[in-house]
Amino acid sequence: AAASALRAASVAARRFAAAPPPPAATPPPQKAAAGKERPLCLSDREARKLVVRGREVPVDPGFWEHVADEQSVRDAEAYRNNTENYIGTVKYPVGVIGPLRVNGEHSNKEYIVPMATHEGALLASYDRGAKAITEAGGITARIKGRCMLRAPVFLFKNIADATDFYRYANSSEVKEAVSQVLNTSLNHVTVTHLRVFQTDRKVHISIGIDSEDAAGQNKVTYAGDIVMQYM
Asked: If DSSP codes are grouped into helix, strand and coil, which group holds residue 32?
């Protein structure tokens, strides 16, 4: 059985030669800034003007009190990398539910939980749920890992070809190479999960990443594309 497996792996390796890692992406050339740099906040409180791409946008007088208020304009630097064409902030109604009992490894107490909504009766429903959960002893939670997943799929003409590719892709050498390509191609990302599985003529490569403080939806989609190109 071992000799047969080695022969099968050898055949798969010959049919699917490992591709070299993709070259590092070259950043696009930076364009010279035309005129003065765009301000962090497009709302000019001193002139009471909102200018977007050189055009003044008419706003209600309340705009300067409720959207481009002094604090929002002063905090523009904090939103530099998160909100393009920043003009200010808006307030949203916030309520609370609880107490909600949590039994965790890093926290073990009751919480008052803030929730933002303008849907009537929503917080009341959550509040009843929190009360029932707390009276029943609370929520017991454990975090086993942090992982955002994508699973690119490779489709073959027949099961034999798919199986050969599965054996190749599932080898420790190829999985290690794929992990290395992802870790070196993506910033602020660590590969935590790489699993290859076959369903008839389809072979899936399930990729899991830890994207630190980001949700990781874009990063893991990009990781899927890198794996497709690499394979």
From this structure: coil
